[in-house]
Amino acid sequence: MFFDLRQNESMARGKRSALGTGFGVITALLVLSTALAYQIQESFSQRSVAIHRHYVQEQEAVTSLRRLLYAGGITVRDYLLNPSVHKQEAYRSEIQQFRQSSIPLIEQLKKSSPHPKAVEELDRNIDDLWRALQTAPDQARDSLGTYAFVQREIAPPRTKAGQILQELETENHHALTASEEEFSVSRSSAANKLLWLLALSLLGAVGIAWFTLQYSDGLERQAAVRFEEVLQAKVELEHLSNRLMEIQEEERTRLSRELHDEIVQNVAVLKIEITQALSTLQNNPAKEPLTRARELADRTVRTVRNISLLLRPSLLDDLGLGPALQWQTDDFTRRTGVPCEYIEENLGATLPDAVNTCVYRVAQEALRNCEKHSHAQNVSVRVRQTASGLTVEVEDDGVGFRNERRSPASLGVLGMRERAAALGGELDIESANEKGTRVRLWLPNVESAQRPANLEVHV
Predict the structure, then answer these.
(1) Residue 225 falls within a domain, yes or no?
(2) Residue 59's CATH number
(3) What are phi and psi of 382, to 5 degrees?
């Protein structure tokens, strides 16, 4: 048995460890999934922002250069259509501003563009174009010379720069598309990893949940079995307790009758014989010892009779419950000096023996507790019989108590409750500090009360 208990405890610890480990793994996977999802979201957000920022910056640089080339062309055209000396300085200043504006744009393309050779070529053509535009006022002598200058010095670099800008713009669009596709592939791959991780977590959670349910079902079945065993043991203990009380009452009855019928009668006969012997003696030295022996016999008769009454009064069997309770209250008053009132209402002359015994013992225990602990000035015992049952109340005006579990008479209370429960009755105790105590016993249908079912006990 000890080995089985240790083995079951070891198995239970192993199951608890397995469940704890499983839940820890599932929690770790969920935390990892959350962290991975957050990392993926942040990474792809940053990559998406970086891709679009790069595209926008390069596109703005290309567009700005194209706008500067277009503005330079418009400016040189306007000047060549109406050349004059006083416009030369303003023209050169404007071309110089265009050139200064293009320098940071070219530098930006050099840093961001994946085509450095094309950017270098663009830089050279734009530089050639600005130099040609700077020398345009010197060539504006006649329309033929101006036309030749434009076709020879301005048009080629301007056209080449425009082509390069167009190519860079196209490549920028292609790079954006490729980055988006790569971004989509990476995102799909990361999402698949995350889904696999979540699927693994879900499978683990399902497995742990199944194992937990099985374990819980097993515990519930074990608990149900243990509850049935405890309930059965409780019923058997109640039967055993009832049977032990019956055996105790039987033993008390037998001892009480033997004391009353044998010892008391023998001692009474001895007393009579001593009395007769004393009557025949006159001034005999044996008279004094015989007198003491008669007094001792008399005290012995009273003592044995009191013991017999305490074990089980013959009044209860011969005259019934009422006279037995009346004698009990009178005996309480005689022993303690505390007035004890006995009141009965409609009490039947013949009640089942089990009811008589239960009521008498409950009243006896209540009065004993009152004598030991209550310090009461007045006590009352009330018995009332109705069609629904029998009610017994033992009330005092003593010190009381707050909790019957803390009462010195708790074991006695337990015995009273067991006696009441054996007959299907109820026992209530009402008490409070300095407010006295009331013990109330109720037994249903006392006319039909039967003796409790016996449980065979070997003693």
Answers:
(1) no
(2) 1.20.120.30
(3) -120, 135
Output the CA torsion 356→360→361→367 (10° steps).
Answer: 170
* Token pair listed for 285: 């030295």
The domain spanning residue 331 has which CATH number? Answer: 3.30.565.10
Q: Which of 189, 216, 243 is the last residue of a domain?
A: 216
CA distance 3 to 81: 115
Long-range contact set of residues 329-338: C-beta below 8 Å, sequence gap at least 24: 329/367, 329/379, 329/381, 332/367, 332/371, 332/379, 335/371, 336/371, 338/371, 338/376, 338/377, 338/378, 338/379
Same domain, 357 and 208: no
By C-alpha distance, which of 117, 109, 126 is closest to 162? 126
Q: How many domains does the chain have?
A: 2
Burial class (CB in 10 A: 0-12, 13-18, 19+), 332: buried
Q: Is 426 helix (H, G, I), strand (E, B) or coil?
A: strand
What does the pLDDT read at residue 18? 66
Query: What pLDDT shows up at residue 381?
Result: 92
AA letter at 374? S
Check residue 319 and give its pLDDT. 80
**Averaged pLDDT in 10-residue chunks for the chain of 459 residues:** 54 67 74 75 73 77 83 80 76 84 83 80 82 74 65 79 80 77 78 80 79 78 86 78 70 67 71 74 68 77 70 72 86 88 84 84 87 86 88 87 54 80 86 83 68 37
Residues 459 and 336 in one domain: yes
Tell me which H or E stretch contains 392: strand 389-396
What pTM does this model have? 0.48
